[in-house]
Specification:
- With 374 residues, this protein is of the alpha/beta class.
- The protein contains eleven helices and four strands.
- The chain folds into two domains: 91 residues; 241 residues, no CATH class.
- It has a four-stranded mixed sheet, with helices on one face.
- The longest helix has 39 residues.
- The N and C termini lie far apart (89 Å).
- The relative contact order is 0.09.
């Protein structure tokens, strides 16, 4: 762009020229200096066109580009022709780039409460549809593998059983024992007021075997194994490994999903049974330490109230919870975006989905077992 010969302030003047206006630009246009602001002409009539001309020795930078952009916006709004034949070529280039970039700020309208409710309902419907579709795919895959067991990857299933079963024993032990301690301590505070200290064994036995053992095991596995499944499959999707399996004619559900779901469905009841034992042991320790109930008396009272149906109820719930955890983790992993952030969101969504579905399933089981008489 031309350099200044003398120090002159920026100027922009409008001159009538027949039925049109002429915009004369001169001086030094600097973004850091004092430059004119575009103001519409004071003439009562609307001009036919606005032509631009520059004086000799004009020095300009981006401030002149923004000025001309504002002038052209006014011409467009008032249906006035904007003539740029008298402008330098490099100035016209920058003016065109500014228009194509769309730098004019636009005010976004806020989303109303009804729109938010509608969008939430649409998203919920899409989530339910995707879940139902995935359950159907898993069911078809399970039938296909039952008809041809040689296609099932037993080695992968055994590896997953070790990861979600044996490797989860420490955290399940800690959580289950502390849950039993907490329940027993809370029950001791209330029952000792009525002289029913021995009933702490009844409360611990029923609550742990029917509910807390399966639920706490499911929550632990949802945070530990379900998130790991989602992250693993999400990373495979980002690396296009799942696309490669589909290209080779291998069903991703058969190869990746079903072995994980079978592993969780088999190991979750065993972990729940182990959690029942640790929860009862924690209650026994509190009963001995606070209520002075001998372990033999605690055990006799426990056996008198807890029967096989209570244990079976917890194991059935644990098996279903295992399927839910595996399905949620694999579903979110296959739905993950192809990025690192998408993998993280998939892991978080897998845990949330698994816990919500487990709570719903637990409520349905409570109604069903009450009807059946369990």
């Amino acid at each position: 762009m031309p350099g200044p010969t003398t120090s002159r302030s920026a100027s922009a003047s409008l001159r009538p020229l027949g039925d049109r206006l002429e915009l004369v630009l001169g001086g030094e246009w600097r973004i850091t200096g004092d430059v004119p602001r575009w103001s519409p002409p004071d003439s009562p009539g609307k001009p036919a066109a606005l032509s631009c001309r520059v004086d000799e020795g004009l020095f300009w930078d981006s401030s002149l580009v923004f000025y001309l952009s504002t002038a052209r916006a006014w011409c467009t709004a008032n249906q006035v022709a904007f003539e740029t034949a008298g402008l330098p070529a490099n100035l016209l280039t920058l003016l065109g780039q500014l228009d194509s970039a769309g730098t004019a700020p636009t005010k976004e309208r806020g989303v109303g409460i009804l729109s938010l409710v509608g969008l939430g309902a649409q998203d919920l419907g899409a989530q339910f549809t995707g879940l139902a579709h995935f359950v159907g795919e898993c069911s078809i895959s399970a039938v296909r593998l039952v008809r041809n067991p040689r296609l099932f990857r037993w080695k992968d299933c055994l590896d997953e059983m070790q990861q979600c079963g044996a490797m989860a024993l420490p955290i399940v032990s800690l959580v289950s024992f502390l849950v039993g301690v907490t329940l027993a301590y809370t029950a001791a505070i209330i029952l000792r007021l009525f002289g029913g200290d021995i009933w702490v064994a009844d409360l611990i036995g029923l609550s742990v075997t029917r509910e807390m053992g399966a639920v706490m095991t499911g929550v632990v596995l949802a945070g530990r194994t379900g998130a790991a499944y989602a992250a693993h499959l999400g990373n495979m999707k980002a690396n296009e490994e799942i696309d490669a399996l589909s290209t080779l004619g291998v069903e991703p559900v058969d190869f990746l999903v079903v072995p994980r779901m079978v592993a969780l469905a088999l190991m979750t009841p065993l972990l729940a049974l182990y959690a029942n034992l640790l929860g009862i042991l924690g209650g026994m320790i509190i009963a001995l330490g606070i209520l002075s109930i001998p372990p033999t008396a605690y055990w006799v009272e426990l056996v008198s109230i807890v029967d096989l149906s209570d244990v079976t109820t917890g194991l059935i719930k644990a098996s279903v919870f295992g399927l839910i955890i595996g399905m949620s983790g694999c579903l979110r992993g296959l739905q993950a975006d192809r990025s690192a952030a998408g993998v993280g969101r998939a892991a978080t969504s897998a845990v949330v989905t698994a816990i919500i579905l487990m709570v719903i399933a637990d409520a349905l089981f409570a109604v069903i077992f009450n009807i059946v008489g369990w």
